[in-house]
Amino acid sequence: MELKEILQAFSCLRHKGLIFKDEAGRYHMKDEVIISSDEVECLAIRNYYRRALEQSLATLEDLPLEQREFGALFFQVPESSVQELKQKLKAFHRERHTWALDQIWNQSEQTEIQHNLLMFPQTKRTPT
């Protein structure tokens, strides 16, 4: 990662309100848990998703089963239901976010978890 990319990512996090500066000039995360959305068009967030996918591939091979969870669900829905499904997935993320924040305050020992959720069509459509 180049310095330019780091500065762009930092700027994006500040602009999106995910980090803030305290009185001493130090930066902190707004929440202990950060949720990102595909609606964010920031290049730094897109690069984060790329690295998360790369890390997932490595984890599939390197991390013991007891320390990870992988699953997939393949199904069909009417194309008119895709936006509703996206909203349901975002609600699921918000629920996990609330749950994770509750866990932080209840325990002294923490482990960092990355929870990825992907949804994309398998059906290729030609632009009209």
Outline? globular
The rounded distance between the terminal residues' Cα atoms is 38 Å
Determine the strand fraction and express it as a percent band.
Answer: under 5%
The share of residues in helices is 40-55%
User: Can you count the beta strands?
Assistant: 2
Radius of gyration: 18 Å
- What's the arrangement of strands in the largest beta sheet? 1-2
The mean pLDDT is 79
Class per helix and strand makeup: mainly alpha
Stretches with pLDDT under 50, minimum 5 residues? none
Tally of contiguous helical segments: 3
Number of domains: 1
Biggest sheet overview: 2 strands, antiparallel
Order of helices and strands: HEEHH
Task: Please provide a written account of the structure.
The chain is mostly helical. The protein has one domain. 45% of the residues lie in helices and 5% in strands. It is built from three helices and two strands, in the order αββαα. It has helices spanning 3-15, 43-62, 82-106, and strands at residues 19-21, 27-29. Strand 1 and strand 2 (27-29) form a beta hairpin. The longest helix has 25 residues, at 82-106. The chain starts with a helix and ends in a 22-residue tail after the last helix. The mean pLDDT is 79.
